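Memo to structure team: turn this sequence into structure tokens by end of day. - J.P.
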Amino acid sequence: MGSTDRTDSARAIAGSTDRAGSARAIAGSTDRTGSARAIAGSTDELFLKSARDGFADVGKRLATTVGRLGPADVNWRAAAGSNSVANLVHHICGNVHQRVVSNIGGAPDTRNRDAEFAAPTEASAEQLVRLVEDTFGQVDAVLAALPASRLLEAGPRGYGSSHLETLHVCLGHIREHLGQVILIAKQRLGSRWETFSA
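Reply from structure team:
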């Protein structure tokens, strides 16, 4: 084989090697992109499941706590201007209905926030439990039907930059109020208070 032939063969081999390397690089890039999409999708689904479980947990604890109280307990206020359990339940349900059922689920927004803090003093525990169960049942139905791909959509009312942020903020907000309800229940029930199982 002449020098020219050897040079041409070397170039051909080098070209083949370069093409193979390029093909592997492209394939690797495609694999990484696909993996990134899969991870992102999996993360969205995990967040949505976590949010759904979180709302269900708050609803269950709230209904259980209120169900242990009598009429005097749910309407009791620590001081003038303080919120009663009845106020807090109306506020929690009004908030989650507006932000999740209406803002994300598309139901009509009928919230009257001022009325939540002027709840009737004759409210019964049974009425409040029914309100909690109905409202959080609607929330669960919305989240069960919500595709994870919609989490980054912005809602029509502008609560947060996305549905994901709305759910995150709303869940944190109602957990704070759940803590207030539990504190009042402990004060009212004293030794009759039963701790939630872990």
